[in-house]
Design brief:
By secondary structure, this protein is an alpha/beta fold. It has six helices and six strands; from the N terminus they run βαββαβαβαβαα. Helix 1 runs parallel beside helix 5 and helix 3 packs antiparallel against helix 6. The C terminus is likely disordered.
Length: 164
Amino acid sequence: MILLCVGNTAPFNRLVRTLDKWARLNPQKEITAQIGAATFYPENMSYLDFFPSGQMRDAAYDRAELLVCDLSVETIMPATTRGLEVLALPRLSIFGEEIGITQVSLAAELKSDAFIRVAEDEDQLFNLLCRPRTPLKTHANKPRAMQNARNLQSRFIKSPGRTG
């Protein structure tokens, strides 16, 4: 199952629209989409605005073989700790998308990561979705996934009492 998560606060129609287009051409693939505040509603995949509970979100992550998302650390962290492959499209201000500095910083930081592939635009995202994927949920990959999670947390999430 492919899981699309866009977060809860700002719409990310560009990402939802791209995955919906891909879903139309790949009807055999199960896709669950959490579309948040999107104003574009998918026609080719099941969706919900928000996960009603953390348990439902966790269950979706556990079932997924691929997470498609923006570059929100809060969205990527649960995937990374599970050794789940991530395909991300950063939000861009030129499209009026609400972004923080972390979206841009994280995109540059993760370009060479084995678990997290960052698409530069919708066409590249679409093409990356079409490529065969190698399962990443292996014992050998688990230590790297945990290290990725720790790196993300230390760089982009402020701890209580930490400034800067």
